[in-house]
Amino acid sequence: MNRLNSLALFVLLLSALIYGIIEWRSASIEQDTLIVDEQRPDFIAEQLQSKIFSDLGQLSHTIKAERMEHYSDLEVSYFELPNYTLYPQKKGQPWKVSAQEATLYKDNRVELKNQVRIKATEINSLIKEIHCKTIALDLKTNIISSEQAVVVVGKDFTMYGSGLIIDLNTKQMTLTQHERTIYKKHDES
């Protein structure tokens, strides 16, 4: 009888252990599913095109992107291949900003990453293009900043440095660390 009690106790403990493992794994799977559900976007837009206007009715900026995912709970939107056109608050020619990806936060701050390109549309602009890895863009003030290395391509020069602040409204640019500038006169035919 002693052996039978031991065997019954062993089967009971083994059953409890198996039941506990099954319940634990089931709870773990439900938690993983809950996390995945929380990470799903509220909506997705393909081939996005949008125009944003200021309170005074002036065109502030436009955005085109291959794909946009909006997350209401996180209050962010993610963009793939975004192309912004920024219009200065005072009259002037717009600037174009493109990248591989961007994140728009609720305070109208955008972080653009990977192959960032800022291009002047004004024909006689001293600065033609700026290239860097990442930038921060404030859509309220039209101020662009970066702590990364930048390449500034202008009329007859290319400038290398790091740390950049640009106010698109006043057309003022500050390069916090200048490394070198290469001057080359371009032939105009």
UniProtKB/TrEMBL annotation:
Annotated membrane topology: Single-pass membrane protein
Transmembrane segments: none
Alphabetized UniProt keyword annotations: Cell inner membrane, Cell membrane, Membrane, Transmembrane, Transmembrane helix
Keyword Transmembrane recorded: yes
GO function term, MF aspect, one: glycolipid transfer activity
Compartments, as annotated in UniProt: Cell inner membrane
UniProt keyword annotation of Membrane present: yes
Gene Ontology terms describing biological process: Gram-negative-bacterium-type cell outer membrane assembly
Source species, domain of life: Bacteria
Family label: Belongs to the LptC family.
Function in brief: Required for the translocation of lipopolysaccharide (LPS) from the inner membrane to the outer membrane. Involved in the assembly of lipopolysaccharide (LPS). Required for the translocation of LPS from the inner membrane to the outer membrane. Facilitates the transfer of LPS from the inner membrane to the periplasmic protein LptA. Could be a docking site for LptA.
Subunit structure: Component of the lipopolysaccharide transport and assembly complex. Interacts with LptA and the LptBFG transporter complex.
Name of the protein described by the UniProt record: Lipopolysaccharide export system protein LptC
Organism encoding this protein: Colwellia psychrerythraea (Vibrio psychroerythus)
Taxonomic path: Bacteria, Pseudomonadati, Pseudomonadota, Gammaproteobacteria, Alteromonadales
Chain's gene name: lptC
